[in-house]
Amino acid sequence: MFAIGYLFNILERGSASYDRVEKLLQEKPLITDAHADNTLSAEDLQGDLDYQIKSFAYPDEKDIPVLKNIDFKLRPGQTLGLVGRVGAGKTTIIELLLREFDQYDGQITLNGKDIRTIPLKLLLSQISYVPQNNFLFSTSIGRNIAFSSEDADQEDIALAAQKSDLHEDVLKMPKGYQTLVGENGLSLSGGQRQRMSIARAVLKDTQILILDDALSAVDAKTETEILSALRKERENKTTMIAAHRLTSVMDADLILVLKNGQIVERGNHQQLLAENGWYAEMWRRQENGGEDINEW
């Protein structure tokens, strides 16, 4: 009788789980390829970005715009820096390029083509997105780095790790690139996890690279070395860097300072220092004591 009761309990729980999965499978995606131009190929998308966003609000808060009058152009080989407090709109600008949302007043084009007309799979194949906390699999370091690059060999993996300043750390580990990282990189430091995610993006080698506060856990020296390597690696490709630490964006071709979803300052590092506005003040504060950008 006990066994029958136990079996019945398992069946009940299994049925409830099945219902939840079934409900999820029945949901229709919000982003579709209904208006996609299926004649496009990767050769048509070379990292030439043009943002012209008049306004954007999240679907569940349509009366509260979170972006207003966002306009900039980014050419292949150029780097864009996005800075501002938490909630200023940095990640939202990135989300629109990743087509997390399609309903906005305005247009984002990639090589002259509205990204909403680019097949989603094709668009995302041209973008490497590295968030602050990327997901790592419970497998080896090597397999984690090569996750999006099926044809990568050991030499390719090691080279990508060198460019993200991870290689020397890996060599010190018991099994090198065969070392298991644990659940979501549990056995690694925060800086090592971030560098592994960057190595994965380097190996994927896409036209557009996005670093969304992806260097927050590494020290200043390591940050400088990684960004220097990326500049050499991506001479003809487009890079976007959202950061709280201004040293992450100081070499960008264009830096946008965001506040409440709007651009309040724009220019390169030297131009923004000369303006003596928010960016210049925060630069001085961070140079003197590493003050967090959100504390001011």
Annotate the secondary structure layout.
Layout: H1 2-26, E1 49-57, E2 65-74, E3 79-83, H2 90-97, E4 105-110, E5 113-114, H3 120-125, E6 127-130, H4 141-145, H5 154-163, H6 167-171, H7 190-204, E7 208-212, H8 220-233, E8 238-243, E9 254-259, E10 262-267, H9 269-275, H10 278-289
Parallel strand pairs: 3-8, 3-9, 6-7, 7-8
Antiparallel strand pairs: 1-2, 1-4, 4-5, 9-10
Helix pairs in contact: 5-7, 9-10
Protein name: ABC transporter ATP-binding protein/permease
GO molecular function: ABC-type oligopeptide transporter activity; ATP binding; ATP hydrolysis activity
Pfam family, one: ABC_tran
Q: Would you kindly provide a written description of the structure presented here, covering whatever features stand out?
A:
The chain is α/β, with parallel strands linked by helices and 296 residues long. The protein has a domain at 133-205: 3-Layer(aba) Sandwich (Rossmann fold). The protein is 36% helix and 20% strand. The chain has helices spanning 2-26, 90-97, 120-125, 141-145, 154-163, 167-171, 190-204, 220-233, 269-275, 278-289; strands spanning 49-57, 65-74, 79-83, 105-110, 113-114, 127-130, 208-212, 238-243, 254-259, 262-267. The strands form two sheets. A six-stranded mixed beta sheet has the order 6-7-8-3-9-10, with helices on both faces. It has a four-stranded antiparallel beta sheet with strand order 2-1-4-5, covered by helices on one side. Strand 7, helix 8 (220-233) and strand 8 (238-243) form a beta-alpha-beta unit. Helix 5 (154-163) crosses helix 7 (190-204). It starts with a helix and ends in a 7-residue tail after the last helix. The mean pLDDT is 89.
